[in-house]
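Lab notebook page, bench 4
Experiment: in silico fold of construct C2
Operator: M.H.
Input chain length: 499 residues
Purpose: comparison with the prior construct
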Amino acid sequence: MKRYHLTVLLIICLGMLTHASPKREMRAAWIATVANIDWPSKAAIGHPQLQQKEMLAILDSAQALGLNMVIFQIRPTADALYHSQLEPWSNWLTGKQGEWPQQKHAQAEAIYDPLTFVCEEAHKRCIDVHVWLNPYRVTNGFDIRDLAQSHIYQQKKHLFVKYGKQWYFDPGLKETRDWLVKVVADIVNRYDVDGIHFDDYFYPYRIPKEEFPDSASFAAFPRGFTDKEAWRRNNVDLVIQELHDTITAIKPWVEFGISPFGVWRNKTTDPERGSNTRAGVQNYDDLYADILLWLEQGWIDYVVPQLYWEIGKKVADYQTLAHWWAEYSYGKNLYIGHSVSGVGQSKIEAWNRPNEICRQIRLNRSIPEVQGSVFFPIHTLMENRLGLCDSLVNELYRYPALQPSVRTDAPVAAQPQNLKIERTQDGKSIILKWTGTQDASYYIVYAFPKNQDVDFDDAQYILAKTHDHCLILPSSVQENIICVTTFNRYHQESLPACF
């Protein structure tokens, strides 16, 4: 019998859950590469085969946990963890910025591209890949003299400023915006990514008693502004809008998302729209990121506020902020960013109890606007601290989930055709087959018990997600009603084909 490569998640129905598992829910994690937080390990720097092995382990774990998206950091410091003609190889990947070890060996196999590898392997597992870029940061814990000769800094030093001990693009310059848009357009054009993602680092976090050094660019290019802080916000607004328009024009199914610091503004700063918090940092005032404007204008498809605090924290209560972001999501997709770094290893009592993250997920599900979770960092999530992974696999993520759709006007997926069942040559197994569709991201196979209502909204009846046009049916469902749907790049599901 031909051996089929399947990406399959078999579901065993063991009874009703206390907390319903939604069919549509974002379940994701960040894969951080800066400082080798998640990947590659320091031992794998400059060793492609070991890097691939480590990434496969991460993706296998993500699949086993029921995740349906990873956010892979590919540009931590104006560098690249992918083949780029614009920016140099990252030192976090190779050990020396701009140098790729395979280039030293004339007989080496074709140079592997980490981003191509991640996209291919994640998609095999029906996991979407959003790529995570930092827009302005140039150095992070290393000296400016360590930048590769091919780095844009070496050719255009006027684009950069030093703040504290680190170097950044000057956001006030049109050349900075043009460069960032060029980098993103290159990625979207050449790679099979599902989304572009920025985190909270726009203008850098404030350094006490030190002003960000942009007086020269403000004087030269004020664009009619007299208030420098309003001008700074507009600098970021302009690039967000340009990126949205660029991405949509190239591949309209590629999403654009932002993961901001968890507090937009405190109520004491903004009595009308601020949250009932006392955070020391505010997106609008300190990072010059007007997230609400971007949501309201439709310049981003989703937002992932980093609510890295526990339920009940006095200055920044998770529950208060989850409801606040729900109120101000402006109809765009809202996922919550959870920190798992302190689970089981914190001085704060809540994080040493085994259920804080689970409480947060249950709270999310009680708020209609919240459509899922993103965990940071993925290596800590994989450690199963306090049994968190067990809780996800056995309860909260026990049934698979499909990614929420971000566009209401997206095309509906084409229906699979020619559904049929055949017995294998040895007669021991039954294979479900169908004719695939050109727009498929993957297919969803349902198994419904006979003599009861068919409910496509109930995730417990999802038998498998697969890229193949066939599936070996387990004996436990061979007498069931079997249906197949197409799931396309816009996260739209087709009408079912049933047998």
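Observations: The chain has 13 helices and 17 strands. The mean pLDDT is 93.
Next step: discuss at group meeting.
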